[in-house]
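Researcher: Structure for this, please.
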Amino acid sequence: MKVIDTDGKTFAELMIDNELDLLFAPLIIGKGDVIKARTTRRVKGKSLKAESRRISLNIKIEVYETSYNPAMGVTRVKGKIIEAPERYGIQGKFHTINLKVGSRFKLYKKFREFDFKILEMLKSREEHSILVTLIDYDEANIFELTGLRIKPLVSLESNLPGKNLPTNRTAALKRFLDNACKIIQKYDGEKYSHVIIGGPGFVKDYLAKMVLSRGILSSEKLSVYPASNVSISGVYEIIKRGFLLNVEKRLSIIEQQRLLEDFLIGISRESPLFTYGLDEVVKAKDYGALEWVIITTEKLTELDQSRLEDFKDMWLRLGGKLYIVSSDNEIGKTITSFGGVIAKLRFSLPH
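Model: Predicted structure, token format:
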């Protein structure tokens, strides 16, 4: 989260840089705070026959509730309007401001040391992302891999004719690879720190050669890895086999996969150094025993105010060793089966 301006006491102008910022915004924007941002609202003209219309305007609201909505990719800030253009007659009414990646807003509150620590940690934990293309003779699937989730971007079917028509098949394969190249070129850019091409067989190698020969990517930015299929499970296969450690160690989802595997082994051996469930993890936090914690986005959004304070305490103690994982990916679904939060301890707790 970028701090554009602040007096260090009661005011800050902020910008949402990534999805992780959206997730942590409810820890910064609390009940009773005041936020000013550009938003849209449906308003009605003064005459009885006037139709309502949606307009864009700057308003200031006193916050009642802040929540992250992963499905919509926004943080919803609800509250009462305390400042707006008089001609619309909406002051005193309730409104929801939807913050998304790229949103700028002004926040008025009594800033605590904790607030600035959160902002500083978010800045230092800027997530990189990888573009993953999985391809075989039937289709190509392109994914965005971030520290929080694996997001499908686009799918492309080859429509290759049968092997009994070799000339037509060769031409169709060239068109298929050409279209895949164009998609990679469209999505690549400064946004992605690396590009992966993977899949079964040799098609991935043909595509990689074409991408390099056309100058779409440099060899330093491109890696080619085998995968048994081209679905999202193929991406997890590449992660689990440790290939990505060679290209992007900073991506937290890679570390989360390794920690989850350690956790599952520890639990199967009944090790006292692994625990799960919110109550048990908070208990370990109170003993100062936590080494690392992984919590799902769903669990985080369910926390009430007292549990949010526990989470803030964990965040300050663990810093980079507290991981948040999307509930809708494979890692998150596994952690959800353990109550939405798992942890490793530095020492075993007394019974």
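Researcher: Any notable elements?
Model: The first strand starts at residue 2 and ends at 6. DSSP finds ten helices and 16 strands in the chain.
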